[in-house]
Amino acid sequence: MSTLQPFARGDILVTASTLDESARFPTGLGKVLQFDAAWQPKASCETGHTGLISAVALDRTGTLHALDPQARRITSIGPDGAPVHAFSKLPERAYGSMIVLDDGDFLIGEHMVGQIPGFSGDGKVYRVAADGTVLATSDTETNGGMGGFLGVTHMALSADGRTLFHTSETGPHVYAHDLASDRRLGAVYSRQDPPPLVFGLAMLNSGELMLACGSELRRIDPASGTAQSVAMPEGRGWAVPIKRDNPASEQLWALDFFGGRAATIMAETGALVELHELGLARCLTGIAQVPA
Fold first, then answer.
1. Fewest CB atoms within 10 Å of the CB: 29, 147, 151, 194?
2. Mean pLDDT (the chain, rounded)
3. Considering only CA atoms, which of 2, 94, 4 is closest in space to residue 288?
4. Measured between alpha carbons, how far is 14 from 85 in angstroms, rounded to an integer?
5. Which sign does the torsion angle of CA 71, 74, 79, 85 carry?
6. Mean pLDDT value of segment 102-122
């Protein structure tokens, strides 16, 4: 496994798996790219494992964790840019979504549900300690998505840490789950207009959710289920919104899976701040930034 440069304030880390063009589904050698705060390239790091990195997240120690549900691995890279051994006790599952909690624990979503060749899963969410010890398990609701095998592919957490919102991408629903009582709260939003597909989501300061719907984002009020469309640059791959660390204003990253582009938008208005053509089609699924 190769290394990155030591992390500096404002550095941006993105998923960039090197795809096998002959594969039926996006699959290839796991890779993470490192940019500075102005999007100037700094380094790249190959994980040494074949799959598709689905998410990256930084913990409070500054360690980067990259999840690959196909490879069934979490690759961890320390703030010095070198690989580290982390999650040594974590059960081997196809994890594909992760939230780093303020107390140092993690919520990790099981990407698969049911059985498909080479994979099986229950679509649960695990709360784990920093070494991977499972502290709690949540029996979350899933729908399988279009293929019937996708579990908890994207997650967002309420400000009080009690309510988890999650999706099975390419399915129609956004679900809520009470983590304290391990209780399913049902769908808080269901897309009905064609195509009825939803993807990633992010929690806003207002308590609303920003939901990716392919060609646009939607601002969702989970209390009422009402939705407001947020226009995005042309394309049908807008699949992942991620809250951006920006003390001056509330901003979001938005990732275009098919186009390999990264946009920055204002959370309140949906106004486009920046658009970067990264050339990472079908592998740009996650982004993390070292706090500035």
1. 194
2. 95
3. 4
4. 20
5. negative
6. 91
DSSP string, the chain: ----PPP-TT-EEEE--EE-TTSSSS-EEEEEEEE-TT--EEEEEEEEEEE---EEEE-TTS-EEEEETTTTEEEEE-TTSSEE---TT-----EEEEEE-TTS-EEEEE-BEEEETTEEEE--EEEE-TT--EEEEE-----BTTTT-B---EEEE-TTS-EEEEE-TTSSEEEEEETTTTEEEEEEEE--SSS-----EEE-TTS-EEEE-BSEEEEE-TTT--EEEEE-SS-S-EEEEEEE--TTS-EEEEEETTTTEEEEEETTT--EEEEEE---TTT---EEE---
The number of residues in the chain equals 292
Measured over the CA atoms of residue 183, residue 186, residue 189 and residue 194, the dihedral's sign is positive
* The pLDDT value given to residue 247: 66
Rounded Cα gap, residues 290 and 10, in angstroms? 5
Alpha-carbon torsion angle 89, 127, 76, 98, nearest 10: 150
Closest by CA to 229, choosing from 239, 220, 238, is: 220
Residue-wise pLDDT for 244-266, tens only, equals: 977 678 999 999 999 999 999 99
Neighbours of 215 (CB within 10 A): 15
Determine phi and psi for 147, rounding to 5 degrees. -85, -15
pLDDT of residue 118: 80
Q: Which residue type sits at 233?
A: P
Tokens (6 digits) for 183: 């209780």
Which residue in the block uniquely carries the two structure tokens 């050339």?
Answer: 279
Cα separation values, 72 from 29, 44, 112, 263, Å: 13, 21, 11, 29
CB of 151 closer than 8 Å to CB of 112 = yes
